[in-house]
Amino acid sequence: MSSNVAEALKNAPSEKVPAGKDPGLTDTFFYDNKIVRDFGIATVFWGLAGMIIGTLIAFQLAKPEMNMGNQYTTFGRIRPLHTNAVIFAFVGNAIFMGVYYSLQRLCKSRMYSDKLSRINFWGWQLIILAALITLPLGITTSKEYAELEWPIDIAITLIWVVFGWNMFGTIARRREKHLYVAIWFYIATFLTVAVLHIVNSYEMPVNFLKSYSGYAGVQDALVQWWYGHNAVAFFLTTPFLGLMYYFLPKAANRPVYSYRLSIIHFWSLIFIYIWAGPHHLLYTALPDWAQSLGVVFSIMLIAPSWGGMINGLLTLRGAWDKVRENPILKFMVVAVTAYGMATFEGPMLSLKNVNAIAHFTDWIVAHVHVGALGWNGFMTFAMLYWLFPRLYKTPLHSVKLANAHFWLGTLGILFYAIPMYWAGFTQGLMWKQFSEDGLLQYPNFLETVLQIVPMYYLRGIGGLFYLSGVFLMVYNLVKTAKAGKLIANERTEAPVIVPTVSNNAGHWHAWIEKRPTQLAIFATVAILIGGLVEFIPTFVIKSNVPTIASVKPYTSLELQGRDLYIKEDCVNCHTQMVRPFRFETERYGEYSKAGEFVYDHNFLWGSKRTGPDLHRIGGKYPHSWHYHHMLDPTSMSPGSIMPSYPWLFEQEIDLSTTQAKLQTLKKLGVPYEDEYISNANEELMSQAQGIAVDLAKEGLNVAPEKEIVALIAYLQRLGTDIKVKNEE
User: Fold this and answer.
1) What is residue 372's DSSP assignment?
2) Would you say residue 318 has pLDDT above 90?
3) Where does the pLDDT of residue 428 fall: very low under 50, low under 70, confident under 90, or very high at 90 and above?
4) Which one, out of 75, 474, 603, 728, has a CA that is 20 to 30 A from the CA of 489?
5) Left, alpha or beta for 69 (phi > 0: left; psi -120 to 50: alpha)?
6) Cα Rg for the chain, rounded, in angstroms?
């Protein structure tokens, strides 16, 4: 059933005209194009920045010298900068750009408040700037897609509320009764992202630049990947589906293929997606029932996801001839296809037998980037090419350049994804391989790394192709803007009383399409159910996280070392989760238990192994091995792609924070005694001096207050608690 506005207006019955109203009257008003233009410029600027950083880190993994020898440009520091810049700066600004343009036209109303629009714009840019400053400084929580510290989290909350206020205000005073499908996705995006951000950002501040998660271990992992998976779902997917439902029919000049399918697509997607987070934690210490729930709902996701893809592609029925000539449609077709590929592969990767091979490998990196580069990137480029000529009332400067951008971008995706898939298959199979004698075929983790370095070079080349296309787009858009003049306030007219824009009058769903409040309530209920079903038992039923008596809190020195591990974002490359597979227990040691992480605020299980798992590294090597390894990784592991960390040997532990950290953790339930907290720095120095003495025996003179000593203490603690006889 078509949702084309023109057809719906023609076919829909007119509403009754109230007494005293002239149905022939029209209302003149102005759309705010300036805010759309501003978000468009920000999208391009931050997109370039994020992709340049992404290309740099791609080559850093192939050539460690690209880390540039200082602490502010290491892979660990700037990889989260890349993800935040691409997700929240590039894609985030693209969402605001598309929503601010389409919402005004779908509601036949200017945005509710120009002032709120400005606050939204400048507030979001300042948040991105704060990330740009803090992450290279090592100010991070280390939680995937949620690395920013608590003051920035509060700022994100406030600006998101401003966006919602502006959006719902516009919807409330709309001149169009019917809520088009794109608006449903915008509403669900706002509500769900708000819930995700607030719940996952529950943290206890130590000071202005440091906090600890309010959750620990298993619970923290569950909440984080409930957030992490649904950040992809409700920040990278649902808003772009709403934008697809608006911009694709506009670009093709065709009605959406099926309105009924869009209804099924929307409600099934937002209900099912929220359950799928645990598939990121298969074979970990998360309870089995939660893992199974994640798998079941992940498989179910194929249906609504492909329903949306099919609805998008079939919208082009009768318009495929335009795709040959129109670069905007080319971008959109590949974007929707990439969405379909990623949303098929995701459920497949959630199958336990597939996950056992793929998890922790570069296969996941390929999967993520097919979605990010193809779906989000290409859809954003299509919107920019469609919008700028309309904002400036002039034709696009060069269709040929736009087509060149398309082919460079497509080539970039292929050069990125194919080598990463190859690398992932290689890693997964090499890790599992046993010899005829029953021994690991490749016991040294570095053997697998050296095999895939060429793939990292190819991935970097793919990034250069993709980036060069973006530079072409920037030139094209600038020339387009210069050839025209921004229509900052676009004059338009709409009937004072508009017919109900729906050709499904009488349909069961029609009643909610005029009621944003009811729609918002139902959407909120739909997205809360899954999270509550997973969280409540995990937090309330003690058997889900059985305690181990021998597991004790970290000493003050180990805690400082752990925070240095977080500061350098070592969790980017190293996991701390030995899965219950023979090939893992043979390589790393006893598999990880839920009770070992009860004092871990934040959890550090990791999601990618560029280096080996570290959960059982404690006591495996002498202090001197770690000393040399951090100073020059190749001295201990020839061919290593890990950067060196010379500043750890020069900088001193910040002793002024020790007591505050312990007190904060005590408030979160970690059983530190008051006396221990009072003497924390004395205890710290006592343990540090012991490590310094051991190093001195091997001719390595290091002051006990240096950061490297704290990091060694932490690494030597990892996984040692269960070696003590369990008292329970």
Assistant:
1) I
2) no
3) very high
4) 474
5) left
6) 27
Which spans in 433-515 are helix H?
445-483
The model's pLDDT over 435-489, given as tens digits with 9 standing for 90+, comes to 999 999 999 999 999 999 999 999 999 999 999 999 999 999 999 999 999 999 9
Q: What gap in Å lies between CA 325 and CA 319, rounded to an integer?
A: 11
Q: What is the DSSP letter of 692?
A: H
Element (H, E) at 205: strand 203-207
Of 3.30.1330.10, 1.20.210.10, 3.30.70.260, 3.40.50.11810, the CATH number of 29-492 is 1.20.210.10
Q: Is 82 flagged in the annotation as binding?
A: yes
Residue 506 is predicted with a pLDDT of: 54
Per-residue pLDDT for 2 more than 50? no
The dihedral through the CA atoms of 608, 612, 614, 615 has a sign that is positive
What local confidence, expressed as pLDDT, does residue 24 receive? 58
Pick the closest to residue 216 from 231, 202, 230, 196 (CA basis).
202
Measured CA to CA, the distance from residue 254 to residue 248 in angstroms comes to 8
Reported as a single tens digit per residue, the pLDDT across 533-589 is 999 999 998 888 988 999 999 999 999 999 999 999 999 999 999 999 999 999 999
What architecture is domain 556-717?
Answer: Orthogonal Bundle (1.10)
Closest CA to 654 of 692, 701, 710, 702: 710
Please report, for residues 107, 173, 179, 188, the alpha-carbon distance to residue 516 in angstroms, rounded to integers and kept in the order given: 12, 11, 8, 11
What ranges do the domains of the chain cover?
29-492, 556-717
| Residue range 155-193, pLDDT digits in tens | 999 999 999 999 999 999 999 888 999 999 999 999 999
Orientation of helix 516-540 relative to helix 181-200, angle to 10°: 30
Report the amino acid identity of residue 243: L
The answer to whether 601 touches 220, Cβ cutoff 8 Å, is yes
Mean pLDDT value across residues 319-348 = 94
Which string of DSSP letters, residue by residue, matches 491-519? Answer: EEEEESS-----S-TT-TTGGGGG-HHHH
Predicted local confidence at residue 25, as pLDDT: 72
**Length of the chain, in residues:** 728
Asked if residue 728 has pLDDT above 50, the reply is: no
Q: What mean pLDDT, rounded, does the chain reach?
A: 92
- Is 229 annotated in a binding site? The answer is yes
The encoded tokens of residue 179 equal 């809520």
Of 298, 292, 296, which is closest to residue 269 (Cα–Cα)?
298
In which residue are the tokens 């090592």 written?
138
pLDDT value at residue 177: 87
Using an 8 Å Cβ cutoff, are 172 and 232 in contact? Answer: no
Q: In this predicted structure, what is the pLDDT of residue 514?
A: 84
Residue 367 annotated as lining a ligand binding site: yes
The whole-angstrom separation of Cα 643 and Cα 260 is 54
Note the pTM of the prediction, 2 decimals. Answer: 0.93
**Has 280 been labeled as part of a binding site?**
yes
The yes-or-no verdict on residue 78 having pLDDT over 70 is: yes
Q: How many angstroms separate the Cα of 195 from the Cα of each of 200, 216, 517, 537, 716?
A: 8, 20, 17, 19, 38
- Residue indicated by tokens 């990947």: 225
